[in-house]
Amino acid sequence: MENNCWFQCINEDCGATYSVFDSVYQCRDCGELLEVIHDIDALRGRSASEWRHLFDDRYKRNAWPYGSGVWGKKEWVMPLVEDDNIISFYEGGTNLFWANRLSRELGLSELWIKQCGNSHTGSFKDLGMTVLVSVARQMIADGRKIRALACASTGDTSAALAAYCAAADIPAIVFLPRDKVSTAQLIQPIANGATVMALDTDFDGCMKLVQELCREEDIYLANSMNSLRIEGQKTVGIEMVQQFDWHVPDWIVIPGGNLGNVSALGKGFLEMQAMGIIDRLPGIVVAQAQRANPLYRSFQNEFETFEPMLAGDTLASAIRIGDPVSYERAVRVIKRFDGVVEQASEHELADACARADRTGLFSCPHTGVALAALLKLIDRGTITSAQKVVVISTAHGLKFPEFKVRYHEDQLRESHEVNPMHSNQPVEVDPDYDQVRSAIFRNLEAVQA
């Protein structure tokens, strides 16, 4: 079976096409974003049942590179890359956690958390970066001059790019807004040997500069503006359905910043539907921080207008983006999936995180945004108790230790108006048995009250 794919302009009135091995990120004719199009007729050479069995046979096995949650679906992702040029840490295959205790507390029959942070660099960004870096490595092997790969980042993208470039022996350059990413996120690209540019601006300012650099020099853009990233990230939805024995959940709640992940989620489901793998689509909820909510504001007027904003200081730093690159792609997905956009205040997202942590999770603040949005939609009746809901957890909580510490030590009240309803602090007593016992039982009684 001959597999092929190409870049195509998302503007249906244009439809210009380009090779996936071309350094192009926007249509050269009309300026719109691109997407990777696959030869669906060729892929239909296998039946839906055959695809399901093939993907199941490969899942988390040892045959290179198919044990990866991304490359196990290579024909649907990037069939044109030779296996020897693939850079993979066996990303994907992350836990779909049944949040049974939390679902009971929220009054849901089924709540699942797709833990994308259980990955090599601790976030879902690995899924897209394995595809992009592998394509860049193929381009270099074919004689294309690429001096380095570069991205603007709020933390997680830079970590993924640096790690995959280090494995590929390709220089990486990352643009970060100074003092706006966690220490854990900052040290990741530093440790992997990337050139780290800490700039006195926000993500949107970093994005403008990296685009200019990639236009003027032989440097390849690694942001989700590059549609190759979407191909890896779309496997979140495919893998989720696979983990449900190929059944579709009722709702998926996903944090939204630059909105590439929303676009990717929708693309995966639409391709499964086109191939006959599934017969219906889920509802999609995009959750934004109230201090960085341009998509939510646009949703309020049914997307009639869109106004970029100066994103405010939010605990959900990875989605602190006021001018999302993938806005148009995301709007298409939301409309197609009868989607909803909701927002969360700083108090709501922080408390939702802490509440989830009390049931065994360890949520990043962006997952807190999604959980807070879920709570609002349950209260509103948009999501009902009988429906199966999946929350996409985009990163591991260990990347945000300062956020956790500041919450439990009640240090977020003034800066972010957070009243920590679920704070928990160490109990300090002398090393005396009676004092220890008294403090333990006093605490147990308070917990059980």
Can you describe what's shown?
The chain has helices at 40-43, 48-58, 74-77, 100-106, 125-141, 156-168, 183-191, 203-216, 228-233, 235-243, 260-274, 294-300, 327-336, 346-357, 365-380, 401-408, 413-416, 433-448; strands at residues 5-9, 17-18, 34-38, 96-98, 110-115, 148-152, 172-177, 195-199, 219-221, 251-255, 283-289, 340-344, 388-393. It has 449 residues and is an alpha/beta fold. The protein has a domain at 96-122 and 230-416: Rossmann fold, CATH 3.40.50.1100. The chain is globular. The termini are far apart. α5 runs parallel beside α6 (156-168) and α11 crosses α13 (327-336). α6 (156-168) links the parallel β6 (148-152) and β7 (172-177). The longest helix is centred in the first third of the chain and has 17 residues, at 125-141. The protein has 18 helices and 13 strands.
What's the number of helices?
18
Q: What's the architecture of the domain at 96-122 and 230-416 in CATH terms?
A: 3-Layer(aba) Sandwich
Largest sheet: 6 strands, mixed
User: How many beta-strand elements?
Assistant: 13
